Every structure is written in structure tokens, then in C-alpha cells.
What does this fold into?
Amino acid sequence: MLELKYEADGLIPAVIQDRHSGKVLMLGYMNAEACQQTLDSGFVTFFSRTRQKLWTKGETSGHRLVVREIRVDCDQDALLIQAELAGPGCCHLGYRSCFFRKLTEKGEEIILEREFDPAKVYGQDHPESQT
It folds into this structure.
């Protein structure tokens, strides 16, 4: 019987994968309420650890993640959500994926191009447009 195993803080990690390309778009955390809201609405909803509240991806930007399939790992302590991205990018810094850089022996290397200007999407004073 399926029983999700939340961490001590009540959260479970959720990897978001582009349904078409298979690329990882982002990692977020869900509590039981966020999981239920995701199932009910069909849009990925997370629990923000910094703001201590639920948030649905795209509620500000319009770049929603439409759920196509939710998978649970063998230990039932992590989720893989295959989704379709409605918008040019998933990352609040303007990239399609939050994993837009790689770590090398020389430091950081940016491996993706920006898809949108976060200041135009979120506004100059919005915390999401800050780097």
C-alpha cells in the first residue's frame, strides 16, 4: 500500500521533469496539503520553506507546470513529477530549468541561455527578480 514518507519537517522532495524532453526543470518540496492540491488542481504546488506557505508554480509569472504524471520512488520518500511547462522558463532567474549551470574544477559554468527577463515577468521590486 502506498504511503508517502515525509521528512521530519513534514516535507517530501519533488523533482520536476519536462514531460517531452525528459530534462529536469526544478526541485521543490511538498507537504501533504501541497500534494493534495497538486492532485486536485492539475498544477504543481509546493510548500515554500522560506515563506512557510503553499505556492503554485506560475501564480506570478504565468509559467505554470501542468501535471501529466506523478511517480513515487521505491522508498516512497521522493516524487518525480512529469509536467508540461506553460511558458518560456521554469527558473525565477529566467532560464528554462533551474539547473542552468554546472560546477567544474574552474568553478561555475552557465550552460543554458536565458529564456526571459525576470524583472519584466516579476517586476523590478519583486523578490523573484533578484539574483
